[in-house]
Design the sequence.
């Protein structure tokens, strides 16, 4: 198995190097490489046993200096968090190659080379089990994407490419410092008496060590913030999202697919892989803020999407909204929410990747992305309309599609956290949960509105443009057939999807329905790892609850002038425990006022079980 | 000791079992090569190849005499003083001389491919070049004030002439004049500072000076003497900072680089810097044993490094001439390379952990050597690209690089690799270089300097990326033929050959790291031995 994984990571790179120089052959070889990689990924997914043990692990010493205690390893493996993202990357690259088949005419071999190099980078990010290796792949993905956007993008491609690169690299520099600090703190705080004289970079090892011996909370908060900047730019969380619409809109279709489908996931993946398991107390303390940002992203992305006149821009903003859901799920500190958030990463990759592919196909046919220029396409292009419907419905979250499962689990998680698991009821959490539901409603609004305007109603095609530019390279025979002055809509031979395009979209649609109908298959494989990774944060979060509870008890006692029973067996009055990792300590050390203080309630509701009580 | 005994002891030291002369063979080979080139030109006036092959032969021989692969075997060359304490012969000097000679070998090939001087000038060019390298070799093994001065002057004087090599161009003469005037002033200040230090400490032998300083500070020092010491230290720093082009003394670099040919700029930016850094390590190494001096030096070098780095990166923003842009980038890299020196000074007091073969301070020096080894290829490649483009497009302006990817894709890919490596993102060796020095800063706990270093990477992002953007994304100008540098031409092949280590040293960094560790081992025992 491990040799399969290793091959699948470097096969695209080898393909990129050996790609022939002629366009027809280049795309053929690129497709073959991507398909082979996908086949390997499918085999690996099929053999994945579940559980928490790393699967298909390869581990070599890479940089172990003789005089320096470095122990950088070339270590790759799959686990429940990475397996679906890994498979998604392999799948979307095939889609990207198929989408670019005709669309990329200029310098096609270079294009496919970069696409395949990008695939190696993305596969590497998700499989790296070594801090150093992760960072290398993390940065490495920027270079091919910079060129993909900058060379083959639309009008403002140079600006978009520069902005994308500057934002991401500037953010990731702080992430670099954060990762460095994680490794060094471990090095300077050895476990056991004989100091192991080496700097370990292995992510699983660091995770177990940090679980055994947590960092002190204030330090955790600083490192969390450093990691946050780079990952939040990638996701993107709301104040740092400004590069995304520009980059998505300007990128070529294949670039948008990879960007939306995979690269945004790297941010969320970073949170789930590093911030949450390694810095649980900080993650728990930052939870209200991250939830606020996520829900702000959900609403802001949805509202801005409503106002767009460009299909691609609309979908780009919908990505901001959907990634907000993923982050809200991950940081809900509830098992259902976390599983939902992880599944939503996959679901969003499939649906949005498909949507961007479809926009690319529409653009290839009509040379426009303006909603106002198009109408009634369902009559003209029924097959395209069908696939658009599937993707749209998944994006909305209709039951039976993947979007429903992901968003529903996330919302359940948030509601459980807001109503059942938080004592006393927390107004902030409850408000956020309700607002997140509003995001689903808005999502249905803008996506259905888009579908209605573009695919239903009277047929409307960019006539004026194609008439004026009779020599448009896309449909040269169109102009010759159209009579000069025709009042009715002419019958342009805009062809519907051909077999290649159907083959590109069909797997996405199948998977969307599969996840929608039988999510167990996917959840079973990711759940054990996610539970393990987030156990620390959930525990810290529970501690936070108990702290609140204790505060309430104290206040109640003060109000009713009763004495706290010192050794009470009454579960309502647990004896005060000393707590060290309280989030309030962390926050006050930063000078923050805790956000989620709730008013003390008059009576304790025995209906809702205390999370810590058996 | 009477006179005959003195003569005898010098004789023994030079030719006897101490074998000073045998450890000095690389320098002697360089001298012999210089003489041979001049003689060959006199005897064979029609010999138009102008001594290129002689230089190659001489440099290869010198490199073989340095023997960088033999001395790093276990236990070989623990470090000793030769010529009665004038020079230090240890692995550090072997490593740096090896780097310098390797660089000169690559550089001479580069000038042969790209150079555009009249054939009859070739001999002088090579003689001056070898003279400068000889001076640099002395700088990195200096153990004595006289050798410090001698080495610096020997390295600088040929560079002044090389900067003004294009005699018919005004900017070139201006560059040479500026360089010479500033250089002379800096040398004067260095000399003054050295004489203050030597006067206050009563010695010109660097390790003895360090020991005397420790004694003096222990016994109590009167304010006048302290002023002289501090002033002397600052003046010496000014002299070295000038060679390094550290911040307040950097102003000559952009003008000199713009006026000189790209070849000479490459030489000054790599070889001259490497030698100056080696000298800085030697000078600082002599005084780090004294706690007060250490604190003083850490602040001084850290400050210089931080300001130099930041200034270089900020000033590079507005540059449209690629050579000028690279000049500022060189300044920034000098700042980065001073960071491990600061770490070394800070760590010199502590003891390494018992199971570690290297002390922490030696690890910092190893980081510097790794950086230098990678910087050598990166910066030489960058300037080589500029020189080859100048030969084809007759311009060094960034605008003329627009759309280069369409006409010379292979060349552009290599140039982009070099730019991304100078920026320092993985998977290129520039990242390795930064990574090692950041680790050194971490172990020295110089957090502020670390933060400044990382932030500077962000600052430098924009202008390196702009070069890549212009080459790949911008449309080629319509009014002239696109420059073509196929990778099959000599220039293209040479450029591609330089790019290979820029990539490969990221993946195979273990060898370089072990080499640097071995070189840094036993460094301080020569100057501060038991």
Sequence:
């Amino acid at each position: 198995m491990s040799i399969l994984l290793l091959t699948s990571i470097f096969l695209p790179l080898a393909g990129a190097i050996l790609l022939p120089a002629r366009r027809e052959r280049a795309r053929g070889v690129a497709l073959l490489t991507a398909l082979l990689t996908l086949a390997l990924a499918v085999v690996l997914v099929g053999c994945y046993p579940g559980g928490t043990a790393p699967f298909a692990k390869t581990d070599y010493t890479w940089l172990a200096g003789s005089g320096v205690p470095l122990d950088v390893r070339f270590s790759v493996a799959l686990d429940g968090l990475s397996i679906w993202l890994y498979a998604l990357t392999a799948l979307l690259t095939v889609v990207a190659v198929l989408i670019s088949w005709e669309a990329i005419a200029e310098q096609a071999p270079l294009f496919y080379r970069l696409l395949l190099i990008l695939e190696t980078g993305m596969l590497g990010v998700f499989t790296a089990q070594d801090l150093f290796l992760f960072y290398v792949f993390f940065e490495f993905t920027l270079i091919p994407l910079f060129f993909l956007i900058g060379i083959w993008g639309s009008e403002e491609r140079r600006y978009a490419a520069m902005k994308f690169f500057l934002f991401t690299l500037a953010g990731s520099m702080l992430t670099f410092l954060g990762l460095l600090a994680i490794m060094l703190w471990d090095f300077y705080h050895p476990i056991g008496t004989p100091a192991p004289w080496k700097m370990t970079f292995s992510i699983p090892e660091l995770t177990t060590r940090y679980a055994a011996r947590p960092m002190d909370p204030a330090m955790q908060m600083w490192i969390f913030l450093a990691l946050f900047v780079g990952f939040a730019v990638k996701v993107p969380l709301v104040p740092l999202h400004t590069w995304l619409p520009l980059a998505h809109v300007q990128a070529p279709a294949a670039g948008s697919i990879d960007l939306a489908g995979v690269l945004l996931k790297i941010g969320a993946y970073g949170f789930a892989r590093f911030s949450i398991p390694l810095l649980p107390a900080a993650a728990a303390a930052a939870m209200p803020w991250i939830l606020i940002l996520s829900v702000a992203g959900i609403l802001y992305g949805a509202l801005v999407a409503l106002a767009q006149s460009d299909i691609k821009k609309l979908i780009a903003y919908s990505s901001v909204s959907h990634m907000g859901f993923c982050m809200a799920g991950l940081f809900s500190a509830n098992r259902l929410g976390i599983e939902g958030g992880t599944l939503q990463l996959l679901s969003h990759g499939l649906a949005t990747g498909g949507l961007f592919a479809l926009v690319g196909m529409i653009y290839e046919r009509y040379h426009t992305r303006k909603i106002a220029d198009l109408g009634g396409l369902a009559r003209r292009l029924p097959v395209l309309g069908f696939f658009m419907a599937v993707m749209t419905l998944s994006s909305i979250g209709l039951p039976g599609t993947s979007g429903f499962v992901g968003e529903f689990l996330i919302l359940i998680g948030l509601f459980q956290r807001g109503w059942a698991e938080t004592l006393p009821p927390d107004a902030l959490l409850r408000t956020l949960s309700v607002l997140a539901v509003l995001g689903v409603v808005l999502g249905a609004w803008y996506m259905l509105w888009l579908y209605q305007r573009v695919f239903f109603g009277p047929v409307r095609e960019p006539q004026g443009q194609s008439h004026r530019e009779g020599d448009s390279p896309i449909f040269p025979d169109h102009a010759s057939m159209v009579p000069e002055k025709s009042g009715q809509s002419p019958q342009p031979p805009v062809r519907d999807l051909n077999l290649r395009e159907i083959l590109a979209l069909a797997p996405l649609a199948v998977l969307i329905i599969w996840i929608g109908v039988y999510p167990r298959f996917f959840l079973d494989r990711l759940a054990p790892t996610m539970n393990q990774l987030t156990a620390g944060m959930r525990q810290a979060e529970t501690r936070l609850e108990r702290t609140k509870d204790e505060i309430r008890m104290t206040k109640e006692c003060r109000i009713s002038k009763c004495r706290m029973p010192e050794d009470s067996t009454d579960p309502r009055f647990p004896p005060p425990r000393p707590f060290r990792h309280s989030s309030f300590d962390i926050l006050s050390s930063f000078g923050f006022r805790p956000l989620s203080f709730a008013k003390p309630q008059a009576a304790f509701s025995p209906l809702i079980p205390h999370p810590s009580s058996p | 000791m009477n006179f005959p005994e003195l003569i005898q002891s010098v004789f023994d030291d030079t030719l006897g079992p101490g074998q000073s002369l045998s450890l000095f063979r690389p320098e002697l080979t360089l001298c012999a090569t210089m003489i041979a080139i001049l003689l060959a030109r006199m005897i064979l006036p029609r010999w138009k190849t102008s001594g290129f092959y002689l230089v190659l032969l001489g440099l290869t021989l010198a490199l073989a005499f340095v023997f960088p692969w033999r001395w790093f075997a276990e236990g070989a060359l623990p470090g000793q003083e030769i010529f009665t304490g004038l020079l230090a012969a240890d692995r550090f000097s072997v490593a740096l001389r090896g780097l310098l000679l390797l660089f000169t070998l690559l550089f001479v090939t580069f000038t042969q491919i790209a150079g555009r001087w009249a054939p009859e000038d070739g001999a002088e060019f090579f003689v001056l070049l070898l003279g400068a390298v000889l001076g640099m070799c002395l700088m990195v093994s200096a153990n004595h004030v006289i050798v410090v001065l001698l080495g610096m002057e020997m390295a600088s004087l040929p560079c002044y002439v090389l900067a003004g090599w294009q005699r018919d161009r005004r900017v070139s003469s201006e560059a040479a004049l500026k360089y010479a005037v500033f250089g002379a002033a800096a040398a004067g200040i260095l000399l003054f500072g050295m004489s203050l230090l030597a006067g206050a400490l009563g010695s010109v032998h660097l390790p003895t000076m360090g020991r005397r300083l420790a004694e003096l500070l222990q016994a109590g020092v009167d304010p006048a003497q302290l002023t002289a010491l501090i002033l002397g230290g600052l003046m010496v720093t000014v002299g070295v900072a000038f060679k390094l082009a550290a911040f307040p003394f950097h102003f000559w670099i952009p003008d000199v680089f713009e006026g000189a040919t790209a070849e000479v700029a490459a030489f000054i930016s790599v070889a001259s810097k490497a030698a100056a850094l080696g000298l800085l390590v030697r000078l600082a190494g002599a005084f780090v044993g004294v706690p007060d001096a250490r604190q003083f030096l850490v602040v001084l070098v850290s400050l210089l490094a931080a300001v130099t780095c930041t200034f270089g990166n900020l000033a590079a923003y507005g540059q449209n001439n690629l050579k000028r842009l690279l000049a500022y980038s060189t300044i920034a890299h000098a700042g980065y390379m001073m960071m491990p020196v600061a770490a070394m000074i800070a760590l010199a007091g502590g003891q390494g952990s018992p199971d570690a073969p290297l002390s922490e301070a030696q690890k910092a020096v190893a980081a510097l050597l790794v950086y230098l080894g990678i910087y050598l290829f990166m910066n030489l490649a960058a300037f080589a690209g500029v020189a080859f483009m100048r030969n084809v497009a007759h311009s060094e302006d960034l605008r003329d690089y627009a759309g280069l990817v369409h006409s010379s894709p292979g060349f552009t890919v290599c140039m982009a690799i070099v730019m991304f490596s100078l920026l320092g993102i993985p998977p290129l060796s520039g990242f390795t270089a930064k990574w090692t020095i950041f680790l050194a800063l971490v172990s020295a706990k110089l957090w502020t300097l670390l933060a400044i270093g990382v932030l500077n990477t962000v600052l430098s992002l924009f202008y390196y990326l702009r070069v890549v953007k212009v080459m790949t994304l911008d449309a080629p100008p319509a009014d002239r033929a696109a420059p073509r540098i196929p990778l099959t031409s000599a220039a293209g092949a040479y450029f591609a050959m330089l790019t290979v280590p820029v990539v490969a040293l990221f993946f195979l960094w273990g060898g370089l790291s072990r080499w640097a560790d071995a070189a840094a081992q036993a460094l301080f025992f020569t100057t501060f031995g038991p």
Remarks:
- Residues 531-614 of chain A form one domain.
- Residues 520-559 of chain A form the longest helix (40 residues).
- Confidence is low (pLDDT under 50) at residues 464-489, 561-568, 573-614 of chain A.
